[in-house]
Predict the 3D structure of the following.
Amino acid sequence: MLTPLSAVIGQNKAKNFLLTSFTKEKMSHAYLFKGPTGVGKKMLARAFAALINCASPQNGEACSNCPSCKKFSSGNHPDLHSIEPQGAGIKIDQIRQLQKDLAYPPFEARTRVIILADIHDTMRRPEVANALLKTLEEPPPDTLLILTGDEAGGILPTILSRCQLVPFSPLSYQEVAALLAPEVEHSQALTLAAVAEGSPGRALLLHSMGLLDLRRGMIDTLTRLDPESPEAVAAVYGLAAQAADLKENLNDLLDLFATWLRDLLLLSLRNSGQLINHDLADLLEHGRHSWHHPGLLTALDHLGQARRQLLRNCNRTLVCEVLFFALLREKC
């Protein structure tokens, strides 16, 4: 289905900049859409590709009815190419194939559009970056390159200098929560929006993995456990096994635990106006009586240590066991 520019939530500066460039016929040969993951960069790239090739654009939108729009809508336009990372990033063979394809003129579009996604990962491979740089230095006619990336700091200055930078921003929490409705209950939607830092894509990913429900169950267990009780040891081993089973998503769970500890810290300082975990109101109320200010700071230190150990490929289960025992020790 064809997505119009107006359907891309937020990003008004980016949309207005691109629309002005198009209407004034001053488009760059290459744009770098730079901003957080999951805020609409690829969606806007496809919408812009459809607009600049539409036979009858109206009020800054593609008409959706001309042959070009219908092909964009079906995902079968021969002059729209989207190159996605394979594994750790875009491969050199993908760029070489692109260079071969660009040796020929567009099949039917006024402007062929190439979308190269997530190039911040690709920049770690010098041979790929150099091949891409050659394409940017010698752009073929009637072709627009749109690169997307999360961090300009990880992209070579030589590539940055050959692209028009288009910044993207996180969405407001309310905008993200509205996008998640009605599938997600409002308090959970607000929590997901805050944890995802205004990225609808990341919020949807966290929701699809069921991490909010998992972290609620874990926090409920930790809140109710007596550190001195006989069942505490078995409970911690069970929680650690659950967490370790998440594998590469374990860091997302630790992000959620960090926001929970942050909220408890705010409550201990009598500041409830900026809480993130809106769906944990009951558990936060119980937790504020179990963890106090000095212990919460120590708990956050333990969480940071767990993250560092995971980066060193330490045993996930052992790291989680040590972390959960440490959190219990800090209870009042």
Remarks:
- DSSP finds 16 helices and five strands in the chain.
- The beta strands are 30-34, 80-83, 112-116, 143-149, 164-167.
- The mean pLDDT is 90.
- The longest helix spans residues 250-268.
